[in-house]
Amino acid sequence: MSYVRCQRCGRPTCPECQRQAAVGIHCVDCVAEAARALPTTRTALGGVRHEGRPVVTLTLIGLCVVSFVLQLVVPDWTTRWLFQPVVAFYEPWRFLTAAFLHSPGQYLHIVFNMVALWFVGPTLENTLGRARYITLYLMSAVGGSVGSVLLATATDGWATSSVGASGAVFGLFGAILVVSKRLGGDVRGILVLIGINLALGFVMSNIAWQAHVGGLVTGGLLAAAYAYAPPARRRLVAILAPVALGALLLGATLLTYASIGAFAV
C-alpha cells in the first residue's frame, strides 16, 4: 500500500507511477493532464514543435533497415518491390516501395542514405511538423520514381531496375534548401552538398541520377508550397499542395507511358 499522495489530486500513487514535480509528487494522470493543458508551440513555418526524438525520421530509418534485412533473408523480397518502369505500369505501388529497398550487395548504399536522412530529416520534421514532413518524404520518393520514368527512354531504358531511398533523400535536400532560404539562412553549404551528390550520379555507374533529379524537384516544389503559404492558409495548402503535385506527377507519368504505347500492351 502506498502512503505517498499526489499533490494535485490527493490520490495515493505507487512508486512506479510517481513523478517528481516542482512542488511534491504528482501521479501520471495529473502529469498527462497538465501536459494536455500546455499551449501548442509552433515553429516559424507553422509546424507543431515536438520535444524529444524525431520519431518520424527514426521510423523511416527503421523501416528501411528492416526491409534491408528482409532483402538478405527472403529470396524474392527485392524483386517483389523494386522499381522498373515497364513493370510499374502494371504494379504502381512500386513507385513508392522501391524507396524502402537498397542494394543487398552494397552495404554503403543503405548507410549513406540513412546517414543523409538523419542529417536533414530531424530539422525538417521539427520545422514543418510531422504530417507535412512525412507527406514530403513519401511524395519525394514517388517523384524519384517518376523521374526515372520521364527520363528512361533517353537514358537507360524501360527495363532498368532501381532501388533506394535516394529520391526521397534528394527531396529532403531540395526541401531543406527552400526552407533555409525562406527562413533567411545561409544556403551555400546545402547547394554544395546537392551539387556534389548530383555530380556523383553522372560520373559513377549504377546510380539512378534520374531518381535524384525527380526527388529533388518534387521535394523542392512541395517545400516551397509549405514554406511560402500564408499563415492563415497553411492547413489548406498542406492538403491541396500534395494533391496538386500528385496529380501533376500522375499526369506526366501517364503521358510518358502513352507516348511509348504502354496502354496498348
From TrEMBL:
Highest taxon, organism lineage: Bacteria
InterPro entries: Peptidase_S54_rhomboid_dom, Rhomboid-like_sf, Rhomboid_protease_S54
GO terms for cellular component: membrane
Domain Peptidase S54 rhomboid: 91-226
Keywords: Hydrolase, Membrane, Transmembrane, Transmembrane helix
Intracellular or extracellular location(s): Membrane
Ranges annotated as spanning the membrane: 55-74, 94-121, 133-152, 158-180, 187-205, 211-229, 236-260
MF term (GO), any: serine-type endopeptidase activity
Membrane topology: Multi-pass membrane protein
Main location, first listed in the record: membrane
Family: Belongs to the peptidase S54 family.
Name of the protein: Peptidase S54 rhomboid domain-containing protein
